[in-house]
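Problem statement: downstream parser choked on a complex file, so we are re-checking the raw output for the adenosine-5'-triphosphate run. The parser issue turned out to be on our end (a line-ending mismatch), but while we're here, posting the original submission so the record is complete.
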Amino acid sequence: MGKVIAIANQKGGVGKTTTAINLAASLAAIEHPTLLIDIDPQANCSSGVGINPRTVQKSTYEVLIGDISLEEAIQPTELPFLEVVPSHINLVGAEIEMIDVMERERILANALRRARRKYDFIIIDCPPSLGLLTLNALTAANSVLIPVQAEYFALEGLGQLLNTIKIVRQHLNPELEIEGVLLTMFDTRLRLSNQVAEEVRRYFGDRVFRTIVQRNVRLSEAPSFGRPVLLYDITSIGARNYMALAREIIQNNQRFLLPEPTTEAASTNGLSIPASGRSPSASSDATSLRQHPGRDA
Ligand SMILES: Nc1ncnc2c1ncn2[C@@H]1O[C@H](COP(=O)(O)OP(=O)(O)OP(=O)(O)O)[C@@H](O)[C@H]1O
Ligand SMILES: [Mg+2]
């Protein structure tokens, strides 16, 4: 089963979308089949991977109001291992349209049930609010990644987010974990950035990622070309930072990535032998990665 990570912080402009796009692209570049889901009506994530949200016919909006399945909305991107479910401005209305639906917080979780077998990672870009769209993401997710901008008032509002996570755990998704807190837009020249980093580490301890995303103009330019930064300037510091983040997340999630043992393998000395080996040579074959028989159990 793939790992579903929601990128959330109700504060605007902290780097959620930049992180969703570039983390997903980096995981895909390491040949992990990855799905990027845009549930923000601003649709910046969709345009950031080259999709024109104005012409999108099948988006998260149609999925959430129950018109189509999630599979029907999946589109390819320039990266072979990365697919996307784009958003549309209509999604603004979805929160209202969903109000009368039974189990309205679980719509995305239910829609994702089949798709999560096909991917190693599913990354959800949330809007800057703690409304029904973000609640759907937190209910569908295994974990939440919280980007925090290395700026004044970095921790402001995080109490509210942590409280929402607690409520989601109590009522909707007991398994929800914190994947980590990510420092973004870090300026190595500023003492302020270091002070914020210290404060965030004091508050969140080892839940802060080792990787820090620095302020890098390439990261802000890439979306206007509809490309993740690694396809825009692979040598940039932004590309390197997000690749490091992807590696850190892969490292932390080995248990999600190892295929479940087959019955035969499980009976061999009780050792868990991967059902369809993930050697570098095997992983160069997209088809073999997409069909982990052991993981569909
Ligand atoms: N590390 C970075 N270096 C330079 N610019 C960045 C970096 N991260 C994000 N930005 C820029 O900062 C702005 C806000 O980033 P982004 O859109 O990712 O935030 P967001 O949290 O998704 O915003 P919103 O809350 O509106 O959805 C964008 O213009 C983006 O290009
Ligand atoms: Mg955004």
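For whoever reads this later: DSSP finds 16 helices and seven strands in the chain.
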